[in-house]
Design brief:
Strand order of the largest sheet: 1-3-2-6-5-4
Radius of gyration: 24 Å
Number of strands: 13
Largest sheet: 6 strands, mixed, barrel
CATH superfamily of the largest domain: Ribosomal protein L25, C-terminal domain
CATH topology of the largest domain: RNA Polymerase Alpha Subunit, Chain A, domain 2
Distance between the termini: 68 Å
CATH architecture of the largest domain: Beta Complex
Structural class: alpha+beta
Oligomer: single chain
Length: about 210
Amino acid sequence: MKVVAFERNLQGTGASRRLRNAGKTTGIVYGGNAEPKLIELDHNALWHALKKEVFHSSILELEVAGKTEQVLLRDVQYHPFKQLVLHVDFQRVDANKPIHVKVPLHFVGADNAPAVKLNANIISHVVTELDISCLPGKLPEFLEVDLSKLAAGASVHAKDIALPAGVELTLHVAQENPVIALAVQPAGAASDEAAAAPAEGETPAA
């Protein structure tokens, strides 16, 4: 995905305010063997790009002054209550060095899961993104989580996900294999079953 930006020479609150009034958003590009570079971007184009999942989880082609370099979006600062992007950070990537990034999870097959079809369970998505490590060229836009075999009351864990070649999970020690999704019985269904069951010592009605 390509992003067009322009070099920015002015800094400070006043300069940033004038840029915002002109429909621009400030940013910075850092990392690699080059010095940090101040940039500005068209706010409306950036706003719409930020709504796309791929913009947050893929290698971007950032063009500044006719030169293109590969970057990752690392941080976005939004206005507290206005629909306004205040600042963005991009990090340069080296094709030969692994990167650590969060990628979104796409859940598939839920409608065919035994938990849903046979037991009327509800599948809860506990985690919607995971940390991974890989070379930039191996970065997937998302990871697919297959729920088609999920049984009633069962769960899917991070290590159950099939990873593309060259991609590794980056898991925290506190959560060695976190739950990604689980099948749960609706609260109302449990109470209905309890009400329908005969009390101890009673004879069910014929």
